[in-house]
Amino acid sequence: xxxxxxxxxxxxxxxxxxxxxxxxxxxxxxxxxxxxxxxxxxxxxxxxxxxxxxxxxxxxxxxxxxxxxxxxxxxxxxxxxxxxxxxxxxxxxxxxxxxxxxxxxxxxxxxxxxxxxxxxxxxxxxxxxxxxxxxxxxxxxxxxxxxxxxxxxxxxxxxxxxxxxxxxxxxxxxxxxxxxxxxxxxxxxxx
Length: 191
Description:
By secondary structure, the chain is α+β, with helices and mostly antiparallel strands. Residues 162-167 and 181-187 have low confidence and may be disordered. The protein is 41% helix and 26% strand. The radius of gyration is 44 Å and the shape is rod-shaped. The strands form 2 sheets. Strands 2-1-5-4-3 form a 5-stranded antiparallel sheet, with helices on both faces.
């Protein structure tokens, strides 16, 4: 990725810049050479230069630069003081346009956030569905067990008792469904 370069002398004038700096900052290096950096450079870059003069070191920052023609740009800037035997001789800035990269990073963060929300929603739905299914099955079971009409056995008889509660002397009986004809022999049969 091409990098823009702006060099500033000890008096605060632009000494030189390259073509990439012209493109990113929308300036002409020939016209800017020898002029005060404060008059040419955008305010965030000028503020960085002022901060650098006070600290005499190396600074790295992401800066938002607004340009009149297009949308705001995000620049990744590295600036340093130039010294000769401890005396400041100027400052240099290297920068690159990282607007598209930062936008992609935001999209990735947003995508991860939406993915997390989707996982959370699926988990909540699962936790809600489990008790509902349990209650539905329980309701169906009670409905079957407590229904008014008793269930038929495989042979077509209604159960009238269990063999475990019958005494030895009383036979267990099953009642056959009524056909409308009252016939003791057809309706009750020993087991």
